[in-house]
Design brief:
Helices cover 81% and strands 0% of the residues. The protein contains 6 helices and no strands.
């Protein structure tokens, strides 16, 4: 086992978590931001051009559940790749 395998596994988990949480951004945060900024017409145009976005809003529970599961599953590879990260950071600062 080489030293880069835990990092590679950690990177794939991070990328998967990023894409899963990106779905929640498109599903809920982006529409709320556009409406709050008074850009409701932009939101309606976006839905007209990309009607697949409506599917994300209709299945919010699945989108949030998938994102939460991906983030939770990513904790183990991150801890395996960087087991002493906090300790090294504090040691480097002289604590």
């Amino acid at each position: 086992m080489s030293g880069t395998e835990p990092l590679r596994a950690s990177a794939w988990g991070a990328v998967a978590s990023l894409f899963a949480s990106g779905g929640t951004l498109v599903c809920c945060a982006l529409p709320a931001l556009l409406v709050a900024l008074g850009a409701g017409a932009v939101l309606s145009s976006l839905v007209a051009v990309l009607p697949q976005i409506v599917w994300l809003s209709e299945h919010k529970a699945a989108v949030f559940g998938t994102a939460a599961a991906m983030l939770a599953l990513n904790v183990t590879p991150q801890r395996a790749a960087f087991p002493n990260l906090c300790r090294r950071t504090h040691d480097d600062q002289g604590r």
